[in-house]
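Notes continue from the previous slide.

Worked example: a multi-chain complex. Inputs as given:
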Amino acid sequence: MKKYETPLLDELEKGPWPSFVKEMKLAAATSEMANDELGQVEKSYRDKRGYWKHGGIVGVLGYGGGVIGRYSSLPEEFPGVAHFHTFRINQPSGMFYKTDRLREIMDLWDKYGSGLTNMHGSTGDMIMLGCRTEALEPLFAEVSSRGWDLGGSGSALRTPACCLGQSRCEWANIDTMDICNELTQSYQDYLHRPAWPYKFKFKVAGCAVDCVAAIARADCSIIGTWKGKIAVDQDAVKDYAKSGMDIKAEIVDMCPTGCMNYDGSALSIDDANCSRCMHCISKMTKALRPTGEKGASILIGAKAPIVVGSLLSWVVVPFIKMEPPYTEFKELVEKIWEWWDDNAKPRERIGELIEVKGMRSFLEGIGVEAQAQQVYEPRKDPFFFWKEEDLSK
Amino acid sequence: MSWLSAEEAKQKRQTDIGPPSYKEMLPPVIAKNYGKWKYHEVLTPGTMVHVAESGEKVYTVRVAGPRLLSTKSIRALMDIADKYCDGYIRWTTRNNIEFMTPKEENMALIKKAAEEIGFPVGGIGRGISNMVHTQGWIHCHSACTDASGIVKAMMDELFPYFNEKLLPAKTRLALACCVNMCGAVHCSDIAVVAIHRKVPEIDHDHVKNMCEIPTTISSCPTRAISPDPAKKSIKINPDKCMYCGNCFTVCPPINIHNPEQDGVAIVVGGKVGSLRKGPMFSKLAIPYIKNNPPRWPEVVEAVKNIVDTYAADARKFERVGEWIERIGWESFFKKTGIPFTFQHIDDFTFARDTFRTSAAFKW
Amino acid sequence: MESEELKNKIYAFVEAAKGKKKLKEKDIIKGVSAETGEGADVVKKAMREMIDVGKLMYSYGGGSSSVEIPSEEYLREKGMIQ
């Protein structure tokens, strides 16, 4: 195997943080592909530019996504990365793994690919980084015959992702992992066969802390919430005070709605004024917990800035029950897809389309009533539409 | 081990089965107490305990991973999980690895074993957790900086905030190697985003053959692109181009890469949680720092300065964005010593909401 | 309409757009449905069957997905031709 000098990358083996260069060298010791990857990346460091061509058209038969073609622009110099495709494997919800199941993937990846991975990609898939076109079909057969499948790419449903929810978190108002799994399984066709104007992402968070960044990164953000009161365990409150927490400064004064009061021994909450932001609960997890009806808020439209600016998701359905088999939610999201698919231009995300067509058009299209929870404030201008049906109301 | 033949592959392959169920991936203590957790406590910056209604406990040890992992390291991490965690392992949404065990005494053993193979323990609570980032030069055609290298250099410098020192609140760092932002860094406390600064160069012969002209024209958000009928290609109005690279995405012969001019911007003050204030976008702090591999010292220094200023000045539980809103952006620039420039004043879609309409401000 | 005949129509529709316009699934379904009078579901099913056996393929370029006639390279890789 060719030995590359990598003086620049070697600098990134120093220091306490785990080194990706060390990982590349580990893989390069037994893989020509990883070895040439190391060589090419060193060259990128020297020249301050990447050496990858635009994607290419590769995939497994019948699917339109899950594999992203990647070719080196310097195939003669680095033949091991002439093809270096990405193979996305759909992660189990919550990214828990039984090690014998994960080992079978590692064995297959050593056999068919570079031995390099991303655990995980930005959307949530396990990313197998670097294989040749001719490896795709046999690798897919091996992976799928062991009960794994590809993730999404292109103008399709992208691999849904979630926080770990009720598996290990007392704040989760909904069963995020089950919802994520159920959506993934129910919509396999949309995930593998790009039928839409552009990508569509689901992310499921158990509460407003949003550890999966649903509100910033998903076209459909499902965020757990509740309708009842916050139960207060006054003994636990006393324990927090005893352990040195400044309850007035750190909890009461930081409450955005001013709905809390602490008299030096007991903590009280004006629940009608609570906006369920999670500040107090997340800081006094032993003392405070949500009660009553649990469900989710559905927010729509988040995306990164390309091309006319980033969007955060907007509240569309302030509260919906989320219980298996999630029929009400599925009916809603299918209406959302239909409206988007009927109206969007190519490469138009749903958030962008809502801006173009107007929130009313969207809400009417999916059969959702106007509700004050959908906005921070009503409009300021005097220019608004009246439809015939509004005039007769 | 030989590859499957085409015929064998055809026989074996299954489609539309989705991933394995999460239910078979759960450690026994997790499966048993699913949905029945009562509270948790952070024990150290890298360990915590969750207590169930039943009184059962699960101890979690979190270790940092580079997002780029070899199968060899994943196996080594799984060996630890087999030894101390009943054969189960988990990754977090920020590329950390979590080991869970019902046995308190296993925490120290896991920590020792992980650190021996180069994976440090930390990243829980009021500090800096792992950085979310993109592929960079490792694997992306669109990257205008590397991702893993800057992240490594930054986290080496900020390491004490990962495993030992507290900050006012949790501080989320991210990096995107171009404005497509696969890492969606736009709501991070501090993020690095790579940018271009020059109008792309057009390879007209290839545009003719490879690109749909109308699609290319409509890809431009500032309408800087118009047809060039003589060349059967397109032309770009340099006064309107703001170098987003969307035309390059739809039409590869429009080359936007420029190794001497490409670099990174630093944005600050975003968050995704709704705690206290609603989620916030990150806003521009530093418009440009040149690419300086292998360790990008200017970027590391700039981020360190922002973190240190925040650490010294913010109140407990205040995120970076909340701190800046309280003191005002004019104070942020003063306290950090970062120069304010024309690039900071928005002239794109959100501009109107950012101009000051109040006579009250600070000096 | 016979399934084979419909598939020929679909193929011809995709072939006519080659090099001119990237067709999305929906463009094909709408176009062929209008041309043949067959329902959208029927056209979609026929198109999918063609994709499953490599008569047509999903492609990706310019930031979005489309359906195309497979290249020789693709067919060779999938074992469709020698």
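Summary box: The longest strand of chain A covers residues 220-226. Chain A has a mean pLDDT of 96.
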